[in-house]
Each structure stands twice: as structure tokens, then as C-alpha cells.
Amino acid sequence: MSxxxxxxxxxxxxxxxxxxAYFVALMLLVAAFPDVIFKGASLRxxxxxxxxxxxxxxxxxxxxxxxxxxxxxxxxNGGATYQSEPMIQFMTNSVRDGDSPYWNPYSTAxxxxxxxxxxxKFSAMTLANAFLGGGSLTYNIVILIGLFFGVFFIYxxxxxxxxxxxxxxxxxxxxxxxxxxxxxxxxxxxxxSYLYVPLCLYxxxxxxSKISVARWSVAVLAFALFFxxxxxxxxxxxxxxxxxxxxxxxxxxxxxxxxxxxxxxxAMSLLGLALISSFVLLAPLYFPFLENLKSLGTLDDYSKxxxxxxxxxxxxxxxxxxxxxxxxxxxxxxxxAMFNNSGSFTGNTVFHSGVIAIALxxxxxxxxxxQFRWLIGISLGVTALVLVRLFDPVxxxxxFAQLPIIGNIGSxxxxxxxxxxxxxxxxxxxxxLQERNARILPWLALxxxxxxxxxxxxxxxxxxxxxxxxxxxxxxxxxxxxALMLSLLLFSKYIGSGAALRxxxxxxxxxxxxxxxxxxxxxxxxxxxxxANLPPALxxxxxxxxVSRTLNFGQRGLYPELGSAFQIQEVSTxxxxxxxxxxxxxxxxxxxxxxxxxxxxxxxxxxxxxxxxLIQDTPEKNIINWQxxxxxGVKYVLLPLTYTxxxxxxxxxxxxxxxxxLETRVMENMDVLPRAFAISTDGLAEKNNxxxxxxxxxxxxxxxxxxxxxxxxxxxxxxxKESLIVLSDTWHSNWSAKLNGKKVPxxxxxxxxxxxxxxxxxxxxxxTYRPKSLPWALGxxxxxxxxxxxxxxxxxxxxxxxxxxxxxxx
Length: 810
Description:
This protein is of the alpha+beta class. Helix 8 runs antiparallel to helix 23, helix 20 runs antiparallel to helix 24 and helix 20 packs parallel to helix 25. The longest helix is centred in the N-terminal third of the chain and has 26 residues, at 136-161. It is globular.
């Protein structure tokens, strides 16, 4: 192997450690995802769900034990299937058609674009997919490349920056790739930022170790890549990790006399400036968001969210394993998910680390404190604080209630902090083992805690069906792994040569790989492409709907945000781009029973988003204002075939069944109104903010929609008197209109929708959407690019000035 790296070094002119990083990243990816690389399996969640319903075959490579099916190892399916993956296709369509992505007409009655944040329209992963043409194969390639470079930079941080052994870097890389947080959420919007943290951290640490213009510019670009991930909870918690590790590394540099505290503070200040500069570079994303912050109600929405703590002590065993007395994630049986009346989904909020990984991380506490004591101390302290936060005792509630922004981050989003700190602690733990410098008491304490809480769970929950044999096997493996690590720690000081100890540690890392693979329980389906292969019912709808809308019941058919991918307008949503005025309208015309509202809780009685995804076949328990649906232009209602009560209810209201597939029934609304219409202003009390009269439907005159794009709509028609032209799309102040070539105001109709007052005669209306801040944003971004280019050209001269200034400063 040494000869191999020597050849690579000479041939490609890269250092041995960089060659190692490439090799380990490639090896781990091939070992972890052979089903995807060699057998055509898919990492995309829509591929998994579509395959499960349509009979596409599973493509396992390893015989991974699994009790409940392909979904057992997943946690957050919805973030991908209902938000980020449809938005990848939306952006693909926008790039292909040359449409603006700043307005999404297919969600609700029109929603904001990248300002929605959670669907990550402008993330690096989304844009890479969009510009490469989309598709399932592209998606898998892009995410594998992201994982590859994540592992690559983790290895380089441990090996180059921290100066630890190849085995230590290999261990950290393995855990980064296969811990429960990333495996259970892989492909979801919550983990996109996870892929870019290693690059950001590597860039930040290199800059702190030596201040230079080039390294500062690299840090700006790395942070910009990271901040394209706009799912803010995990982006914020990941940023906390980057900040804490960088500060810890800087303090270590100071204590080892590499430079003075003043120089360290200068480095951190310049790194903060790099972070701000990355935001300026991303101004076309963040300026429109800040512009619309109030109108979106995003901060208010987050402030109302309820923090679901973990249940003590029955959540603790799931830190060690995803399978013991009960399973974690989507494999958890209902009795385990809520046992002991905890009110906490212990399986769905605890991401496993594995017995071996926790044991190795416990070795970070050494007999002799090394040069990285500040970094290790900060890592342990912050990890302990976050763990306590997850269980949410009263005193920590009071503390976090005072903290802006991070005080309202949900428990499931704090896991990047834990997993990244563990990633590096595992590397330091291996280092201490190799140096015969590890303490055994921390592992004994953690092992005692795990065994004690497992025994408590046994007394409360028992060892019971379902899947009793599987649970016994899982407990056996848990015991064997614990015994193995205890033996290694006890006898590590007696293992002879350094080579022998290195070999044992390498073997332990390989066993950690196997343990994490088994606990991940990933069985994936063959790659397929829902977005390129419309289901039959949706083919019928797309061919016949025109610019009308659909109303979808349940999780099949045209589930929320799928319309954004297929360019079919759908009334409900699972996004934050929908405007508060439309949400109020939606809830006023669709009143669901509490348990049928997505995200229902006493603190959020209306639910999280306007959605019918949980609606049951109980028309007697729900109230839907069908006249309002007529106004919205709802031409088709999509029902699961099993919803026979709603089928009968709709037929009694004059709906007609026009299509039926194996799983979806399409009902046509025979009373639907045109999406755009004219109504005389004679009956309107107020022209600037008109309210339509109760009998408006009897007097509407259809208006032609000549062109309908994301951010451009053209209407035309003729009236014999002054009239209000109504388009049943959401109003926003960034929409502008021209009537027969002259700019006119767009008025709010019923406080929600768009209208233009026209005089008698022929008219042509052109509506255009553009964020007011966009020209400024583009200018700021271009200026930042020019600055980075200037710094690159003048780097030698500026580095000399910086070095001289730093000498004087210290």
C-alpha cells in the first residue's frame, strides 16, 4: 500500500495524505453503497415510495436484516418527497423553460420561490441537478459526489490538520458516512448542509492555521456553498459545530505558541468577515428572503413550534443501537414509540451512534492531555449541553427560552452537533488507543448507563413480539460489541508493537463499519423516475387541466408540492413559501377535524401547513366550502379509490368521475369558474381593496389567459363597462401590471387575490413578478465576485502586507 501511494504521489503530484483521502473516500463509498453503484438502486426517496407502490424490485447488495420493510431505517421521508425533491424538478423545469424561479404558481394559489427556504430551491445540490437536466440517475450521482467530498475533507482534517494517524482518519470518515443521523435522513432536505460542513471546516481551520488572502477566499466560497442550504435549523446547528471546532483549534494554536491570542482573535474576526462575505455572494438568495421576512411570517412560525424532548431514560438505549428491545425510526412498533406514556417518539428522535463508536469516542479522555485539549474540552462541553437539551429538564428549558433563534430549534435538528463532534472525538480516541493513552473509566460509565437504562426499559416494556427473534439477535450483537470494546480497552496497553496495535484498531474500525451498516437497515429499490413517468391519473389530469387547479386528498395522487414538479397547479402545500393571507383563506374555507390536520398541536391548532395529506374518508367531520373551490379554479379532485364516502359526497354535489386508475379516482367539478374573469365594478364598494359580492359567480365574464409562466402572466379580453379583472392567484407587492402597455396597480381582491381595474373596451394585461431587492442583490453578488478575483490576482502583494501587519500586531 505504501508503494501504491508513492506512485500516486509521483504521478499526480499530490501529497501522500491527499492520495489517502481520495482512496479512503472512494473505498468507503463503494463499500457503503454498492447497491447504488453496481446494481442500479436509488438514494432518492420518491424512487423508494414510487417503487413500493408500483412493484419495482428491491436491489440489495448485502443481506441486511430488516423486519418491517424498506422504510424501517428512514426517519424524515417527508422533507424529501414533499419539499426538496419536487423542488429539484421545479428548478429543472425553470432552467429548461427559461422561467424565473422566484415565483411558484403551482403551490397553493402561488407562492414565493427560494424564500421558502425549506425546499432548498437554490441549494448547490438542487442547482446541480437542475443544470444537469434532472432525473433519478443525476440525483444519485450528485448526492454520491457530495458524500465523497464530505468523507474526503473529514479525512484531511483528521490526517493533515490534526496530524493524527491514517487509522484515526479512517475511523472518523467511517462514522461521518454511516452514523444514524445521515443514514436515516439521507436525501432529505434536513441533511443537505451535512455534506458541506467538512469543506467549510477544512477551509476555516486552514485559514486559522495560517492567515492568507487565498485561504480567506477559499473560506468565503466554502461558506457560500454551505449557505446555499437554506433549511435553517440544521444549517444553524451545523454552523455551531464549525464555530466551536474552529475556536477550539485556534485556542490550541495559541497554547502551543504557534501565534499569540491577539493573532488568533484577528484570524477569527477575518473568518467572521468571510462568513458575512459569503452571504453577500449569495445576495440573490438572501436579499429577497430578508425583503419578504415579514410577509412570510417565518420567524413567527418558528417561534410557535413546540419542542418535543426525548423521554428519560427509555430514549438512551437508542443512542447505542437502532435495534434492541424495540426498533428506532420508521421501524418502531406503535407500542414502543409511545411506551410509558412519554408522549415522545423515542425511536424517531434518537439517531444511533453504535456501541463501537461511542466506546472509541469515550477514549478521547486521555491520561495525558495533548495539544488539542481546548478542542476536545469544547467538543465535550457543547455535546453534553446539547444532549441535556434533548431531554429538556426544567432548568435547560428556562435557559434556551432566553436564546433567540436557537431556542426554538426542534430536538431532531440538534443532531449535527452531536454527530460531528463524535466524528472527531472518535479520531482522537483511536489516536489515544494507539498511544496507549486512553482511559477506561469513561467507557465503563457510558456502558453502565446503557446497560442500566436497557434494564429499566426491559422492566417497563419487556422483551416481546413483534420480531422477537430479531430483537434477541440485536441484543446479542449489542452485548458482543460492548464486550469487544471493553476487552480492547483493558488489554490495549499489553498489545506489543505499534504495528500490532494499529492492526487491532484497524480491525475495530472495520467492525464499526459492519455494525453501522447493520443498524442502518437500508434496503433500496431499483432506480426509477416518478418525475419522468407520470402515473396514469396524473397524465390524464395534465392533459386536460389547462390552467385550472386540483385538490388532492391523502398521500397518493398529486400529493403536496408534486404539482410543482409536474407543472400542475395544486391548492394545498407543505412549504413555507405560501403567504399568510392565503393560509388564512385556506383555513377559513377548509375546516378539518383536528387529528386530520398536519402538525396539529394545541399550540398550532390549524396545523403546520395548508394540507389535506392526512384527510380521512369522513366528509361528515370536515367542512369544505366548495364555492370557494370553484373560485380557486379547482377543476379536479383526486381521491384514493378507497375514499368511497367522499366519492358519494362529491357526486351528490354534481361532480363527475372522469378517470380511474388502480389507486386514484379523478372527479371533475362541473361548476368550476374560469381562473381569470371580469366583473363589473358597479357592485363593488371599494375599488382599491375590493370584496366580491356574494352573488359574483352569476355575473362573471371569462377572460382569456394567453400566457401563463412562473413570473409572467398575460390576460386579454373585452368589456362593455368599467370592470375588475380577477385572477385567482395570490397577491404580492412584488407583482406589477401593465394595462395596454401602461403601468397600473394590482389591487387585492378579498384581501388575498390579484385584480386589475380596466375601463370599457379591449384590454391586454401583463403581470410580472420580480423581487424589489433583486437588482441590488445581483449587483452585490457581482461586486463580491470581482473582489475575490482581485484578491486572487494580487494575493502575493497582499499576503506580504498581511504578514507584516501580523508581526506588528503580535
